[in-house]
Amino acid sequence: MKVLTFGITREIIGAAEITLSGNSVTSVEQLRSVLTERYPKLSQLNSLAIAVNEVYANDEIQLNEEDVVALIPPVSGG
Amino acid sequence: MKVLTFGITREIIGAAEITLSGNSVTSVEQLRSVLTERYPKLSQLNSLAIAVNEVYANDEIQLNEEDVVALIPPVSGG
Amino acid sequence: MIKNIEISADSLSLQRCRDFVNSPANGAEAVFIGTVRNATNGQAVSKLFFEAYESMAIKEMNLIADQALHSFRISKIAIHHRIGELGIGEIPVIIAVGSAHRKAAFQACQYAIDTLKEKVPIWKKEYLTSGEVWVSAHP
Amino acid sequence: MIKNIEISADSLSLQRCRDFVNSPANGAEAVFIGTVRNATNGQAVSKLFFEAYESMAIKEMNLIADQALHSFRISKIAIHHRIGELGIGEIPVIIAVGSAHRKAAFQACQYAIDTLKEKVPIWKKEYLTSGEVWVSAHP
Question: How close is the nearest chain D Cα to the Cα of A30, in Å?
Answer without folding.
Answer: 22
